[in-house]
Every structure is written in C-alpha cells, then in structure tokens.
What does this fold into?
Amino acid sequence: MRLSIVTTLYKSAPHVQEFYERATRAAAALTDDYEVLFVNDGSPDDACERAVALYRRDVHVRVIDLSRNFGHHKAMMTGLQHARGDLIFLLDVDLEEQPEWLADFHAKLNETGADSVYGIQARRKGGWFERFAGSVYYKSFNAWLDHPVPENAVTARLMTRRYVDSLVLHRDREMTMAPLWAMTGYQQIALPVIKQSRSKSSYRFSNRVANLVDNITSFSNRPLVYIFYLGTFIMLLSGAYGMWLIWRATHGEVGVPGWPTLIVSIWFLGGITIFCLGLIGVYLSKVFAETKDRPYTIVRAEYDHEAAVRR
It folds into this structure.
C-alpha cells in the first residue's frame, strides 16, 4: 500500500464526514492505493458509528475500535502500528490541521529525502497568554531533555515506513509522542503551517502543568541528579555554617539562638525533604507502571475489508 492517513476519534462526531471527504481528495490526488484509518479512542458520541458507516461504503476506510478511552497519544501509536502504507500521514481529526497539507508535506519529503516532515506553527494560535504559556512550557520542557522537541509543532506529519517501524519499537506505557518523535532520530524536516483555532481549548492551565511534570519525569532523569546536587549543596552549606558556629563559640561570641531562625530552617529543610521524596515517588510510580508490562491499548474490534471484521 502506498499511503495511510491515520487519525483518532474522541468526541469527534461532527468532524468525521468532512475529514473523510477532504482526506480522501488529498490522498486520491497522490495515489489510488491508500487507506484512511480511524482509531476510535473510546469516543462517547457516535463518532465510531459514523466511521464504520464510511467503512461500509468505501473500501479505502479502516476502523480500529479501542475497548475504552486510553488517551490521544496511545491511540495515535496504535494507529501507526496498524497502518500499512509506505508513507503514513498522521493528523488530528478536528480539522484544525488541514488534510490538504498532505500535498505540501509530500513535496517536501521528496525534495529533501527526509524520513519525516512535520508541521510547525508559523505563529502559535490563541491569545497572548496562551502563546506566552506555550513558549514557557516548551522552554521549561526542553531544558530537562537530552533530545529537545521543536517548539509549536503540531500533530500533523508525513512519515516513511522505516521511520514508523522504528517509532513503534518504543513500548513506553507512560508515553508522550513529541519526545518519542525526537528520540527516534532520522532526518526530520519542519514545515511552517497555519493551524486553525477552535473557540476554546480543551487544555486548562492545570492540564498543562500536569502534562509538563509527566513529560519531564517520563523522559529525563535530570531531576534526580539535581536532587543529589541540592543535597550536596545543603550539606556543604550546613557544614560550613557549623564550622563558623564552632569558631564563634571558641571566641565567646555565641548568644541565645533565635527562635524564628530555627523555625524557618526547619520548615525550609522539611519542604525540600518532602519535595524530593515526592519527586522520587513520581519516578517510582512510573517504574511500577512500566514493569507491569500491560498493553497500552486494547482493540475491541477491527473493521478491515481485507480481513473482514475481527473482534
């Protein structure tokens, strides 16, 4: 198969039909040998039923129905595992990312010989606060990573078969796609795009903070290293302070210890201790999740014209 277009469904019913029509036109402009693969990530609306209706009318459509909602990134990885194309075009179904980008991505891929062409926003969508928060997020995230991720990259990307085969070798249970894309390597080229904006983002500030913590602890051990340095610094500082107190005592200069200083010191060191233990706990919880070796998605049904319907 020449081309696979992969997308995921979650509360996506209003977009399924238009996405299918536009994706089909974009794919047909390049080749007759293509598939449009929908991965239903436990969508609570009738998005899956609409995709299955398209499957029944068009042999180019496939549907992977997951047993529940596993999360956007795990659903994307499942779609990539099931895609059959020599080229795989991944994008979101909500039409903020345009299926028509396929032609430009394909031309860039052929021009450069790259293994992945991904979209990057020429200007981040949203108001000033959203743009500022996004910039802070990426800079904070990349400061902890050995393989920085591109700022303002979108989901949409066209990938070669060998790149996708390497990407799906990652078996992380706690996964975020952006670092995995970067860690997989190969030649990857950014292409500026203009992403459409919905009226309201589904990501609240608390979601962004939680996502940042999860990403850092999933892809970097630097916080643990910095805990060691922090402990070493406090130990040396307290040792130097103790030596200074001894010197003062031998010279008769020690007075009555100040109660506020003592309380502040206790709260400060106690806070650092709790923070460090909490951070170590986050890492231990991730080790706990990874060692269970559970599948990160479960396929309830697969609608495939080549293999009929597998349940």
In short: Strands lie at 3-9, 34-40, 61-66, 87-90, 116-121, 153-160, 188-193, 299-304, 308-310. Residues 259-291 form the longest helix (33 residues).
